[in-house]
Design brief:
The chain has 95 residues and is mainly α. The protein has two helices and two strands. It has a two-stranded antiparallel ribbon. Helix 1 packs antiparallel against helix 2. The chain is elongated. It starts with a strand and ends with a strand.
Length: 95
Amino acid sequence: MKKQIKRLSPHQNAKVFGIMMAVLSLIFVLPMSAWMAMTMPSVDVHGNPMHFPLFMFLALPLIYLVFGYVWVAIGSVIYNIFVKFIGGIEFELED
């Protein structure tokens, strides 16, 4: 039997996707931060001390969460507008 999705919940979908993006970003952020901490020089070309920007790697999952939430919420609202004119995503269920 064919079914159509008539409405997507912007908040619920965005919340789930934002959290998934934040958690999955750790797969890239943690190894990248460890690699940069080990390979970053301690001084720049002028002899000034350089510090590892740890706050940026802590902020990246939060940035992924916020942008993932916002864009999925916007996408869900746009889907809900267009579904009235062109129909919803169609899928088939089997018992």
